[in-house]
Specification:
Helices cover about 45% and strands about 0% of the residues. The protein contains two helices and no strands.
Length: about 140
């Protein structure tokens, strides 16, 4: 509860009794109880309004998966920016005369020749077919 453990709550209660005094403490306690009840009523009203507007699908949502605290923005940006760069910079293994990959020696300079960019073929394009005469076009019922 707000990062307060039991001992800190006891200290706060003792301070409240000392500061407010026994005369005004019941009045402030009842005001705090009314505030808590009102906040709970507002929260349940907002929850019910959301359920009415969104529908019963709101119960099926895994909210832990959508928690922004589980994402590390530095890692996400690094992966997004460096995925293509790493695959383009990493050269393909060289083949020796025996057909096995050749290992580079430790004495060779690290940047002897720049790596040529790797050419990748675009994904194949799916060929479109015409509908037969009188055939209706497919559509997604949930998308309309």
């Amino acid at each position: 509860m707000f990062g307060i453990n039991g001992y800190e709550l006891i200290v706060l209660a003792i301070l409240a009794v000392a500061i407010l005094g026994p005369e005004r403490l019941p009045e402030y306690a009842s005001q705090l109880a009314r505030l808590v009840r009102e906040l709970r009523r507002m929260a349940s009203g907002a929850r019910e309004q959301l359920r009415e507007e969104v529908g019963p699908e709101i119960d099926d949502v895994d909210w832990r998966k959508l928690d922004p605290r589980q994402y590390d923005p530095r890692r996400i940006i690094k992966e997004a920016l460096l995925d293509d760069v790493e695959s383009a910079v990493r050269p393909a293994p060289r083949q020796g005369t025996s057909g096995h990959p050749v290992r580079s020696s430790a004495a060779a300079p690290a940047a002897a020749a720049p790596a040529a960019p790797v050419q990748t073929a675009p994904p194949p394009v799916q060929r479109l077919e015409r509908l037969a005469a009188g055939e209706s076009a497919p559509f997604d019922v949930e998308a309309t």
